[in-house]
Specification:
The protein is α/β, with parallel strands linked by helices. 47% of the residues lie in helices and 16% in strands. α1 packs across α11 and α5 packs across α7. Bound molecules: D-glutamic acid. D-glutamic acid (DGL) binds next to α3.
Length: 271
Amino acid sequence: MSPIGIFDSGYGGLTILSKIRQLMPQYDYLYLGDNARTPYGTRSFEVVYEFTLQAVRRLFSEGCPLVVLACNTASAKALRSIQQNDLPLIDSSRRVLGVIRPTAECIADITKTNHVGIFATPGTIRSKTYDLEIAKLHPHIQVTGISCPMWVPLVENNEAHMPGADYFVKQKIDEMFSADPLIDSVILGCTHYPLLQAKIEQFMPSGVTVIPQGQYIATSLQDYLSRHTDMQARLSQGGTLSMLTTEHPTQFNECASIFLDHPVDAQRIVL
Ligand code: DGL
């Protein structure tokens, strides 16, 4: 079997996986969540790179010709080094893709004011990868990045819909719009944030579009495969989904139900 590998620091990548599978159910998928070492969002560049490379190697050894780093933090801190330095040494016929570039690509079609906001983890915001990618593609767009260290724990503890979440969501929206009141489009640049979308929209100024990235990653991957038919031909098409986690599978299976509408049966691995 040659599945598409989907990697995340934990559960959040399941929001990306489900959008990809909705669009392309025919492929086999292998999801790897590094739940034992999550979160990545507050870790150093070196550690995120090291952990992500271990995960990519593991997915390659499981037969994945193509790996998507569903994690924004891993895409921000590890993708470029892996693509440029590691892939040529490991196996130059395999591919590793991230989520930031496809998200940056879509933004010019959405904003009218050319002022865009990004909510993401501290690591993603500090890396300035969104700012750099958007500047390369759309230099006329002004970007304001706000880090939201409390949002991932809110989602993972199933508190996203509770009244206690209001404070943390409103606080970050206020911070964003006092930095730039002209923002009309806000990217949810973290895998977990789509689960907070209803709460975010509740406090968002009217007329502002909230953009979860899953659908853009899915269409961008579909487009990539249609342009790289050699890669497409290498992927097996059995429609299966397998899950690997570095945490205990019972805990993974339970928490995964926050992110997916079907049960999963994960297998534990050590990276
Ligand atoms: N998956 C991470 C991201 O999209 C969020 C969770 C974490 O901090 O590890 O940035």
